[in-house]
Amino acid sequence: MTTPNTERALRLTVLVGESDGWHHRPVYTEIVHRAHKAGLSGASVFRGIEGFGASSMIHTQRLLSLSEDLPVAVVIVDAEERIRAFLPLIEELVTDGGLVVLDSCEVVRHGDGRERNR
Questions:
Q1: Taking Cα atoms as reference points, which of 97, 80, 60 lies closest to residue 10?
Q2: Full-model pTM
Q3: How many helices and strands, by DSSP H and E, does the chain display?
Q4: Which residues pair with 106 in a beta bridge?
Q5: Which residues pair with 51 in a beta bridge?
Q6: Which residues lie closer than 8 Å to 72 by C-beta, 6 or more apart?
Q7: How many CB atoms lie within 10 A of CB 30?
Q8: By the 8 A CB rule, do 102 and 78 touch?
Q9: Which of 49, 78, 85, 99 is deepest in the core (most CB within 10 A)?
């Protein structure tokens, strides 16, 4: 068995509320579109089923306490310099208790190497 190729990267996680908006568009959508325009390797949006943030109010999708402001995480993984260059492009979007988290990580490359190298 061979050891897979790995490379160092930075994971950007932006935590916002589902109802947070920017110019009549969800903040998470705006972040994804800005990441795409910036040429980052990819972005994924994950909708939480329950959580709380700076307001300390618990939001949940359970039927009896239906919420319209569930937690949302936008996750982007790319080279550290590319992620750090992207941070100023989203600074204005993350307000009202939003949170930006940076984690060092390793990316494992599988396949025949035809993926885009960054």
A1: 80
A2: 0.81
A3: 2, 6
A4: 8
A5: 59
A6: 15, 16, 17, 18, 20, 26, 28, 45, 46, 47, 48
A7: 19
A8: no
A9: 78
Cβ distance 92 to 20 under 8 Å? no
Q: Is 17 exposed, middle or buried (0-12, 13-18, 19+ CB in 10 A)?
A: buried
How many Å apart are CA 41 and CA 21, to the nearest integer? 24
User: Is 115 in contact with 13 (CB distance < 8 Å)?
Assistant: no
| Contact indicator for 74, 32 with CB cutoff of 8 Å | yes
Tokens 């035809």: give the residue: 114
For residue range 47-69, list pLDDT tens digits in order: 987 766 666 666 665 555 555 67
Length of the chain: 118
Q: The tokens 């908006």 sit on which residue?
A: 21
CB distance 35 to 43 below 8 Å: yes
